[in-house]
Design goal:
With about 240 residues, this protein is mainly alpha-helical. It contains eleven helices and no strands. α3 (about 60-70) crosses α4. The longest helix has about 45 residues, at about 1-50. Mean pLDDT is about 85; it is low at about 225-240.
């Protein structure tokens, strides 16, 4: 009788442990699928990606992909939520933490954050580049949900920094695309960069140099505006103001 009571008392706890183990396995499976899908979509784009290839790379049975994500597009959206969505969560949290800070400092910090995020997530830019090549409903959704809100915040900071004389002149949208290209390309070409430069762009020393160089390309001190030898500014907008 005592043994039966003891077993009865242990059953609920055992059930909870088993349930948690199943939940953990499900989470692990989902994360492995997402990681494999990120690489697949980044390398092949949506059209060329295969859910069977994702399953094989994740080490799971193919039906599990459909079980967790319903369809190829469902998987794609989940990958975007886990990458771009994660970036936007960090970005918004950074801005919220910088309330009261001047716009030039805000811009410098969020631009530095972008470089470091790109280094930590090398498939991120490749994934975005694949989708941005052609106009699709997926791209419209991506721009509406993530890209447009991000650009709205950053370009407003760029305009403010330009008014303060602390950022290179030009159309803010154009400049931000230049910044994205300058900061991310080196990670896309990491194997070549290592052969040419003798160091991986992901190595801490080179990453720090890259951050400094990228910020230096775009940020200016108010007293350091580039002047033409005749004394005229090289920036058309400055000549117009004069």
């Amino acid at each position: 009788m005592r043994r039966q009571d003891a077993t009865a008392e242990e059953t609920p706890a055992t059930g909870v442990v088993r349930m948690r183990r199943r939940q953990r396995r499900a989470i692990d499976t989902r994360e492995r699928i997402l990681a494999a899908a990120l690489a697949e979509f980044a390398d092949r784009g949506f059209a060329g990606a295969s859910t069977r290839a994702v399953a094989a790379a994740a080490g799971v049975q193919h039906p599990l992909v459909n079980y967790h994500f319903k369809s190829k597009e469902g998987l794609w959206r989940a990958v975007l939520a886990a990458t771009v969505g994660h970036f936007m969560t960090q970005f918004n949290a950074r801005l919220a933490g910088l309330r009261g800070v001047d716009d030039v400092t805000k811009l410098r910090l969020v631009q530095e954050d972008f470089v470091r995020f790109a280094a930590a997530n090398p498939h991120f830019h490749l994934l975005m580049s694949q989708e941005a090549r052609r106009s699709t409903k997926r791209l419209s959704w991506l721009v509406k949900e993530f890209v447009h809100p991000y650009f709205a915040e950053v370009t407003a900071l760029i305009r403010s920094a330009q008014r303060a004389g602390c950022y290179v002149e030009g159309d803010p949208h154009h400049l931000q695309y230049l910044f994205i290209g300058a900061t991310t390309r080196i990670f896309s070409l990491s194997a070549e960069v290592k052969l040419i430069a003798g160091a991986s762009p992901f190595s801490p020393p080179m990453l720090e140099r890259h951050v400094t160089a990228c910020l230096g390309l775009f940020f200016r001190s108010p007293a350091a505006k580039l002047e033409h030898p005749t004394g005229r500014s090289l920036w058309p907008s400055d000549r117009t103001r004069k």
